[in-house]
């Protein structure tokens, strides 16, 4: 006989219930009990470039969120004043605690690295108008951060084409990446710098798949957006890749967990002997039909008793999508009174009453996991009717029987005071006990103390618990500890410690940790500089980490740590683009096509790649595009286009483009000749380190009057780079 290990199931009828108990992180709070606030905005009636789907998207999203227990404020075709007012009210609502969600569908633009959500009454004639005529998305994040509430989610289906692009000097496509405040997640309909589809049906492509997944019980927030990303990438033929930026510490599900109406636990022998108060029928346990069982010990019900039970477990462990096979094996076991068989057969049943009856039989025999299931059923009662008090009792029994899922959920209830008095100390003991079996259970405690959920905020204690999770081997915690030490976040900066943690995570298969460790070797931080070791780590991560592929390509191109191999470099740059549409990968691959290194020389392909990277905001590629237009390489010669791209890069501080712009002013190419403007750009280029610029600056200075020269020198001193 052997102890029952965690079950790994894919059976459609039972997977959600077991996942509830066996997932790596604890279940979220009851969506019917937890406070949830949402602000949903859909703008489509724009005078310029109207959109047909955002109002539908927002209306459907609002309806879905209401079904999930959110207090929803919905704005359709909102003005600037309405949007600003709603965001401020949203921020005030968040201060009362709970989960916050902000959703916007419509036009969004980025200017100077800031994201703006466009109201329907916006009058935008230039970039400068955006700041005052559109809602800065950072205001939403600021309100969330100021509120200090529980987890927050921001969803931006606002990456359509910029309707004002012709009026802008330097507007970029799509939205810029924003940093998610601690305890929050920002979801974009497509990758930063890219545009999303408005959709051909009722909903946009992204929101269409979000609506299909958001109501799935038990689906974690990370898996929700993973499912959406996979569907959008598939349906867009890889043209649209949704993106998230997250600083969430714990896990939760927007849809909560599947639910059934459940009886309260059976009374103990001592309780049965005492005079019983009046109870409703719903509070009584379903009769077991079995002889009275002795009080279960801690191990009762956790040991498989027969080869038949072993065979049933084997089928479940193999994740076979074969419910018929499960029933064939479970039915005779259940008929013989097997608690394990009764529980599995109950979970496989399509009849809610039969499901409940069988799981209750198992629980009344002392099977801890069945007790835990009944506790969860009581907590997430059918039709929103729950019985937290009964849930506590069943979960207490399951926890006493050793079930980690029961310990976790009961611990959360004790922190929150759900179903009885608050007892954070007892809740902490239960969660720490569960974490001994699975360090993922540390996440809940980290979230509570780090963010001040149900207990006073204590980041130091939260970080200490996170460190314990890392010491226990929790994969993401191990990797993140490396980042904490590298950045000096919550600990003193220590590159040697960062290397230690990155190495441990890399040995566990974490590709990001392998990449970071490779960079530590490449830079000689916390470890001796070693290009060979850097290449080794980049190679370990290259198949799933775009930056690792890019850096490995750089090493191959330069023959550092590996034999110089331009073809291998090109392959890695191409891989970095395939993995994450990396602008640096496009630029480096374009350079190889331009020079004919590792690939056949192809100016047209080089230009295409440079242009794609420039459209994503890579300044060095803007310079390259300007050069191709100026020289007529891979594209017809066009000085006007060359001037435009040189100016975009020059305004962002790129020295070579500043020099080239100075040359065009000096020669009067594609613009009015101006020695004064030529001097300005030569002076800026010289200050930025361009080798040719000092001589050009000094030469053109001779052509200026003292007054002109003084004016341009002062302007150069005041000049500021436009942040890309």
Quick synopsis:
With 724 residues, the chain is an alpha/beta fold. The chain is 53% helix and 6% strand.
Give structural notes.
By secondary structure, this protein is of the alpha/beta class. The protein has four domains: 28-246, Rossmann fold (3-Layer(aba) Sandwich), CATH 3.40.50; 302-471, Tetratricopeptide repeat domain (Serine Threonine Protein Phosphatase 5, Tetratricopeptide repeat); 542-637, Alpha Horseshoe (Serine Threonine Protein Phosphatase 5, Tetratricopeptide repeat), CATH 1.25.40.10; 638-724, Serine Threonine Protein Phosphatase 5, Tetratricopeptide repeat (Alpha Horseshoe), CATH 1.25.40. The strands form two sheets. Strands 2-1-3-7-8-9 form a six-stranded mixed β-sheet, sandwiched between helices. A three-stranded antiparallel β-sheet has the order 4-5-6. Strand 4 and strand 5 form a beta hairpin. The protein is elongated.
Topology (elements, then pairings):
Elements: H1 15-22, E1 36-42, H2 54-67, E2 71-76, H3 80-94, E3 99-105, E4 108-111, E5 114-117, H4 127-133, E6 135-136, H5 137-147, E7 152-157, E8 184-188, H6 205-214, H7 221-235, E9 243-246, H8 269-273, H9 307-317, H10 323-335, H11 339-348, H12 352-364, H13 368-379, H14 388-400, H15 404-416, H16 424-437, H17 442-451, H18 459-471, H19 475-487, H20 495-507, H21 511-523, H22 531-541, H23 546-558, H24 566-580, H25 583-595, H26 603-615, H27 619-631, H28 639-651, H29 655-667, H30 675-687, H31 693-701, H32 706-718
Parallel strand pairs: 1-2, 1-3, 3-7, 7-8
Antiparallel strand pairs: 4-5, 5-6, 8-9
Helix pairs in contact: 2-6, 3-5, 6-7, 9-10, 10-11, 11-12, 12-13, 13-14, 14-15, 15-16, 17-18, 18-19, 19-20, 20-21, 21-22, 22-23, 23-24, 24-25, 25-26, 26-27, 27-28, 28-29, 29-30, 30-31, 30-32
């Amino acid at each position: 006989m052997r102890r029952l290990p965690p079950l790994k199931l894919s059976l459609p009828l039972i997977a959600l219930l077991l996942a509830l108990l066996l997932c790596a992180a604890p279940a979220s709070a009851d969506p019917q009990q937890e406070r949830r606030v949402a602000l949903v905005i859909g703008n489509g009636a724009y005078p310029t470039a109207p959109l047909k789907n955002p109002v539908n998207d927002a209306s459907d999203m609002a309806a879905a969120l209401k079904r999930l227990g959110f207090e929803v404020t919905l704005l359709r075709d909102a003005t600037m004043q309405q949007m600003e007012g709603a965001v401020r009210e949203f921020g005030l609502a968040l201060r009362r605690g709970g989960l916050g969600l902000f959703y916007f569908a419509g036009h969004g633009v980025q200017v100077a690295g800031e994201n703006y959500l466009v109201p329907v009454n916006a009058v935008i004639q230039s970039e400068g108008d955006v700041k005052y005529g559109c809602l800065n998305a950072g205001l939403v994040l600021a309100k969330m951060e100021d509120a200090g509430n529980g987890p927050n989610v921001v969803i931006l289906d606002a990456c359509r084409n910029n309707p004002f692009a012709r009026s802008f000097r330097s507007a970029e496509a799509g939205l810029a990446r924003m940093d998610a405040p601690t305890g929050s997640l920002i979801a974009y309909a497509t990758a930063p710098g890219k545009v999303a589809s408005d959709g051909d049906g009722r909903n946009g492509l992204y929101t269409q798949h979000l609506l299909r997944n958001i109501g799935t019980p038990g689906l974690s927030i990370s898996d929700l957006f993973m499912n959406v990303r996979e569907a959008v990438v598939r349906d867009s033929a890889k043209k649209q890749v949704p993106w998230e930026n997250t600083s969430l510490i714990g896990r939760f599900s927007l849809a909560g967990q599947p639910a059934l109406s459940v009886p309260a636990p059976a009374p103990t022998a001592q309780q049965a002997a005492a005079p019983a108060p009046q109870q409703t029928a719903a509070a009584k346990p379903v009769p077991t039909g079995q002889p009275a069982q002795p009080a279960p010990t801690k191990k009762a019900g956790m040991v498989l008793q027969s080869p038949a039970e072993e065979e049933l477990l084997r089928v479940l462990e193999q994740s076979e999508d074969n419910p018929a096979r499960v029933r064939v094996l479970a039915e005779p076991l259940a008929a013989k009174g097997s608690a394990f068989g009764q529980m599995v057969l109950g979970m496989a049943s399509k009849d809610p009453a039969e499901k409940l009856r069988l799981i209750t039989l198992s629980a009344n025999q002392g099977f801890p996991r069945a007790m835990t299931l009944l506790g969860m059923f009581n907590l997430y009662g059918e039709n929103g009717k729950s019985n937290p008090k009964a849930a506590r009792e069943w979960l207490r029994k399951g926890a006493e029987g050793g079930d980690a899922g029961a310990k976790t959920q009961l611990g959360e209830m004790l922190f929150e005071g759900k179903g009885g008095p608050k007892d954070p100390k007892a809740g902490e003991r239960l969660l720490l006990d569960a974490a001994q079996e699975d360090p993922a259970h540390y996440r809940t405690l980290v979230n509570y103390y780090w963010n001040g959920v149900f207990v006073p905020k204590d980041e130091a204690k939260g970080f200490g618990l996170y460190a314990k999770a890392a010491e226990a081997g929790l994969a993401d915690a191990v990797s993140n500890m490396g980042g904490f030490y590298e950045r000096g976040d919550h600990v003193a900066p220590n590159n040697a410690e960062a290397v230690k943690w990155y190495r441990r995570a890399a040995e566990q298969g974490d590709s990001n940790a392998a990449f970071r460790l490779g960079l530590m070797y490449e830079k000689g931080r916390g470890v001796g500089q070693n290009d060979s070791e850097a290449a080794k780590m980049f190679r370990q991560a290259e198949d799933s980490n775009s930056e690792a592929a890019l850096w490995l390509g750089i090493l191959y191109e330069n023959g550092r740590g590996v034999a110089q191999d331009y073809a291998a470099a090109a392959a890695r740059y191409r891989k970095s683009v395939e993995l994450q549409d990396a602008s640096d990968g496009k630029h480096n691959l374009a350079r190889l096509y331009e020079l004919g290194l590792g690939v056949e020389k192809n100016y047209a392909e080089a230009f295409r790649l440079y242009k794609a990277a420039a459209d994503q905001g890579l300044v060095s590629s803007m310079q390259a595009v300007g050069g191709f237009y100026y020289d007529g390489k891979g594209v017809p010669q066009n000085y006007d286009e060359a001037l435009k791209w040189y100016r975009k890069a020059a305004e962002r501080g790129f020295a070579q483009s500043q020099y080239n712009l100075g040359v065009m002013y000096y020669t009067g190419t594609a613009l009015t000749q101006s020695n004064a403007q030529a001097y300005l750009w030569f002076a800026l280029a010289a200050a930025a380190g361009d080798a040719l610029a000092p001589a050009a600056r000094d030469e053109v200075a001779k052509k200026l009057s003292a007054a002109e020269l003084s004016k341009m020198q002062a302007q150069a001193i005041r000049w500021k780079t436009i942040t890309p």
